[in-house]
Amino acid sequence: MNSSVEKVVNSYPEEIQDKILQLRQLIFDVAKELNLSLIETLKWNEPSYLTDGGSTVRIAWKKAFPAQFGIYFNCKTSLIETFKEICPQKLSFEGNRAIIFELDDEIPKQELKTCIALSLNYHALKHLPLLGV
Questions:
Q1: What average pLDDT values come out for the chain (133 residues) when binned by 10 residues?
Q2: SS3 of 21, please?
Q3: Do residues 99 and 91 touch, judged by C-beta distance below 8 A?
Q4: Cα–Cα distance measured from residue 73 to residue 122, given in angstroms and rounded to the nearest whole number
Q5: Does the pTM of the predicted model rise above 0.85?
Q6: What residue segments make up the domains of the chain, in order of their start?
Q7: Is residue 29 within 8 Å of residue 22, measured between CB atoms?
Q8: CATH classification of 3-122 is 3.90.1150.200, yes or no?
């Protein structure tokens, strides 16, 4: 784990740390399955994950909402709108930027992996119609 990311995650309440680490693992699993090189860093003091041809994925807990945690996407993309179409029942959304979970929620791994894959490939996927796919 990137040391600056580790420091941030360790600053979260213990029960949140486990949830954030589950999200982090899903991101790494998806990147591995797609054979993507993943960079772990901080953006806005939140663990962030970048790939070539992808849109940044962030995970965070906010003090203002202590019983929630989330996975955040670029609000200038169509990602959340797409997620709402493909996973409307299993995910809770915050505007056009995040999937939010309550502390006691079970993380719907398969649906979330689909969302993560779409984000990590976002810029590459936007060009698929031009390739005749």
A1: 93 95 96 94 96 93 96 92 88 94 93 94 62 39
A2: helix
A3: yes
A4: 11
A5: yes
A6: 3-122
A7: no
A8: yes
